[in-house]
Design goal:
This protein has 241 residues and is α+β, with helices and mostly antiparallel strands. It has 2 helices and 14 strands; from the N terminus they run αββββββββββββββα. It has a two-stranded antiparallel sheet. A two-stranded antiparallel sheet has the order 3-4. Strands 5-6 form a two-stranded antiparallel ribbon. About 3% of the residues have low confidence.
């Protein structure tokens, strides 16, 4: 008899739980309907567990959708990860926008876009010039090898000083016309050389032919032999008249 009474009591409790849980107001759940549903996308919540069946309506942690996103996440159901915010600072749990600047090497409101090729630093506003177009470190800007001709410095972002060119700006420009500087990459002069120097680098002088006692016989032979040949040709022509 006692066992039957126990079974009856258990059934009564189950029935009471069912009745209470299904008669709770739309925003309540639980055996006594004393728990409030969270921020559900599609209310009501499950009357027994309190879970939001259709997910959360915003930056709330499922399944109950009563707690805001934890640090490092944002968006509906906290399903998005914050970008590269500076020094690990938080992002807005609704929009994902970083509350401070981005880490060097990243850009965008959410700091989730890496710098494009040959760009680096804060907001990717600096440019590097690595040899053969190789990309530099997005954060530090350091090149893995040499700089492109015409540039120098730790980040290969400094142009050669006036009058210098080439790899690491280690070569001096030649004698460019009007004392102009040369092309910092190739070393060629833009508008030719000063008088007496040869293009393209304007570093070598013209080889001028000079007449001296040592080369006078050779020099005269250049003039006399053709002249004598012309005189003989003229005499032959005149003999026919």
């Amino acid at each position: 008899m006692a066992r039957r009474d126990c079974c009856n009591i258990f059934l009564v409790l189950l029935f009471a739980r069912y009745v209470y849980s299904n008669k709770c107001p739309q925003d309540k759940w639980g055996e006594l309907c004393n728990s409030k549903c969270g921020n559900c996308m599609k209310p009501p919540c499950d009357k027994t567990t309190g879970h939001c069946i259709g997910g959360c309506s915003g930056p709330w942690l499922p399944p109950h959708c009563t707690q805001e996103c934890k640090s490092g996440s944002y968006g509906v159901n906290c399903s998005e990860t914050c970008g590269h915010c500076k020094e690990g600072s938080l992002c807005d749990i609704r929009t994902g926008q970083c509350q401070q600047e981005c880490e060097p090497g990243w850009q965008g409101n959410r700091c989730d876009k890496e710098c494009s090729a040959q760009r680096f630093g804060n907001e990717c506003i600096q440019r590097c010039y690595c040899y053969n177009g190789v990309d530099c470190s997005k954060g530090s800007g350091e090149c893995p090898g040499d700089c492109s001709p015409g540039y120098h410095g730790k980040h290969c972002d400094k142009e050669c000083a006036t009058g210098y060119y080439g790899q690491d700006c280690s070569y001096r420009c030649g004698m460019c016309s009007k004392n102009e500087t040369c092309n910092a990459e190739t070393g060629t002069c833009y508008n030719g050389c000063m008088t007496g120097y040869t293009e393209p680098y304007c570093k070598s002088k013209h080889e001028a032919t000079s007449v001296s006692p040592h080369n006078l016989p050779h020099f005269l032979s250049w003039i006399l032999i053709p002249t004598m040949a012309l005189i003989q040709l003229w005499d032959i022509i005149a003999s026919f008249h």
